Amino acid sequence: MEETTITRSIIAQDLLQIGAVFLRPDCPFVWASGILSPVYCDNRLTLSAPNVRDHVENGLMQLIQEHFPQCEILMGTSTAGIAHAAITAHLMKLPMGYVRSSAKDHGKKNQIEGKLIEGQKTVVVEDLISTAKSSIETVEILREKGADVLGIVSIFTYGMKEGINNLEKSKVKNFSLCDFDTLIDEAVKNNYISHDDKAKLLAFRDNPSDLNWQNK
């Protein structure tokens, strides 16, 4: 497995096969924000599928080796990124930790778990990038504690304009194993959705708050 190049198409096929990314343009899901969405992501399912998990963790390792070769520690986002950070760090023989969404209210009241040395070159491991707000918050917490955050690696990105803009404003680089366009192409190719569905999904990605995507 270590010698296999993990491509975006491989990850897209994996996510579709196990239902980690589920496409339902004719019967949309409701996000917590109230927005109707034709896509639902649950990348935690990759942990329950050993072959897919191998692809994901080796793929994340390849992204780090290619884009952040000077990395000294991995930090997972809470909670979805923790397991992936741990497994990838094990493969790379690197230390790891994770960042809580808020500080504990007891003990040392840590928000960062694991030993982080000031100036340590850090890569954040995330499962999903949409608006990127929570990922950027994790980066800012690490920076405040003295980490030299090189960037983020993630399993999947929607490629939404808001997310791209937020990352650029915060000067944070993200590299994902798979993106929305690749996933949609694979979904059409393997008959998960039709060509008409593809137009709806891309319209949603370009402007999630505009419900006219349903009429494409």
Give a structural overview:
It is built from seven helices and ten strands. The chain has 216 residues and is of the alpha/beta class. Strands 7-6-5-8-9-10 form a six-stranded mixed sheet. Strands 1-4 form a two-stranded antiparallel sheet. Helix 5 (161-169) links the parallel strand 9 and strand 10 (174-179). The chain is globular and about 50 Å long.
Chart the SSEs and their pairings.
Layout: H1 8-17, E1 21-23, E2 29-30, E3 36-37, E4 39-41, H2 50-67, E5 73-77, H3 82-92, E6 96-99, E7 112-113, E8 121-129, H4 133-144, E9 148-157, H5 161-169, E10 174-179, H6 180-189, H7 195-206
Parallel strand pairs: 5-6, 5-8, 8-9, 9-10
Antiparallel strand pairs: 1-4, 2-3, 6-7
Helix pairs in contact: 1-6, 2-3, 6-7
Which tags fit this structure?
alpha/beta; 7 helices; 38% helix; 21% strand
